[in-house]
TrEMBL record:
Cofactor: Ca(2+); Mn(2+)
Keyword Metal-binding: yes
InterPro entries, alphabetized: Ferritin-like, Ferritin-like_SF, Mn_catalase
Name of the molecule in the record: Manganese containing catalase
Binding note for cofactor: Binds 1 Ca(2+) ion per subunit. Binds 2 manganese ions per subunit.
GO molecular function terms listed in the Swiss-Prot or TrEMBL record: metal ion binding
Binding site for Ca(2+): 60
Domain of life where this protein originates: Bacteria
Matching Pfam families: Mn_catalase
Binding site for Mn(2+): 35, 65
Keywords: Calcium, Manganese, Metal-binding
The UniProt record lists the keyword DNA-binding: no
Length: 65
């Protein structure tokens, strides 16, 4: 279903590090309102869903997040 290639989609060239921006980006991915939190909520809700169609939709949304 997925093909894993260890390469970046776009090249990243960091000219000067910015610690404040790095902390902001990390909070968006791993914080309570970040991408990982949303993904885990979708994937955990799928186990209580009684309908297969809705369960499949939650699985798809969770894996895309």
């Amino acid at each position: 279903m997925w093909k894993y290639e260890k390469r970046l989609e776009f090249p990243v060239n960091i000219k000067e590090p910015n610690a404040k921006m790095a902390m902001f980006i990390m909070s968006q991915y791993g914080g309570p309102d970040g991408e990982m939190g949303a993904s885990m909520r979708y994937l955990s809700q799928r186990y209580t869903m009684p309908y297969k169609e809705c369960k499949g939709a939650l699985t798809d949304i969770g894996t895309e997040e």
